[in-house]
Amino acid sequence: DKVLAELIEPYEVRAAKLREFLEDVKPSLRYDIVPLADPYGPSVTDPDLQCLVVSEETRRGGEAVNKKRLENGLPELALYEILLMKDPDHSQNEEEKISSSSLRQRLLGTLLRPPRQDPTLPSRPYVIGLTGGTGSGKTSIAKLLGQLGAFLIDADKLGHAAYVPGGPAYEQVVAAFGAEIVNEDGTINRKVLGAKVFGNQERLKSLTDIVWPEMARMVKEQIREADAQGKAVCVLDAAVLLE
C-alpha cells in the first residue's frame, strides 16, 4: 500500500545502494542484507539478533516484533530509537522527514529508461498508452496531453462504437448472446448484456474475444488517421490496456 509503488526501485538496486553506503561508512563492517517478504522479516525468528533500530513512527512496529519473538520463545530485542533527518527541500505537500514516498513523487514525469528502439515500429506517430482504474486521473491527463497537441484515442468510445448496429462487433455479439440483448430500436442493451457476463469468467472471455480484436483494429485505424494529420504523438486512453 505504498504511495506510487510502481516507482519503488528493484530490490537489486536498493541492495547495491545499501552495500555502497555501508562500505563508505565502515569498510570493515560485517553485515547481511536480507530481502523482507513480510512486515517482520527474520527479526521474529533469528535467535542471534540483539537490537532493533527504530524511529519514533516505527517504534510500535518494534514492539510488535518483540511480542512475536516472545510468542516464538525468543528474547526481546533492545529497541534503539533514532531521530529521522528533516528534508530541507520538502514541499508543502510532502513529509517533513527525508522520505522515499516524497522521492517517488518527485520521480513523476521522469523518463525511467529510454524508449526501446524497435525497427518494426514506425517512428511517427509516437504512441503512448495511458491506463489505470476508475478515478485514477486518466481523463485529466489525456486532456492535458491533448492540449499539448497529442492526438487522443478513447478506447471506451471505440468500445461503444463496436457495439452499435452496423459496428464491427455487433453481429457477432448478438449471435453469441442472443436476441434478448437487443432493444426495439436494434441497439444492444448493455445492461442486459452486462448481466449475462457479470461474474461469469467464461462468458466474459467470450465477449472480450469478440470485441477486443475489433477495438485493436479500430485503434490502429485511429493511429493511421493521426499520422495522416501529421500528429507526432498519439495517446491511447484505455482502462484495460495491458489486459
From TrEMBL:
<dbReference type="InterPro" id="IPR027417">
    <property type="entry name" value="P-loop_NTPase"/>
</dbReference>
<dbReference type="Pfam" id="PF01121">
    <property type="entry name" value="CoaE"/>
</dbReference>
<dbReference type="InterPro" id="IPR001977">
    <property type="entry name" value="Depp_CoAkinase"/>
</dbReference>
<dbReference type="GO" id="GO:0005524">
    <property type="term" value="F:ATP binding"/>
</dbReference>
<dbReference type="GO" id="GO:0015937">
    <property type="term" value="P:coenzyme A biosynthetic process"/>
</dbReference>
<keyword id="KW-0547">Nucleotide-binding</keyword>
<keyword id="KW-0067">ATP-binding</keyword>
<dbReference type="InterPro" id="IPR014729">
    <property type="entry name" value="Rossmann-like_a/b/a_fold"/>
</dbReference>
<protein>
    <submittedName>
        <fullName>COASY synthase</fullName>
    </submittedName>
</protein>
<dbReference type="GO" id="GO:0004140">
    <property type="term" value="F:dephospho-CoA kinase activity"/>
</dbReference>
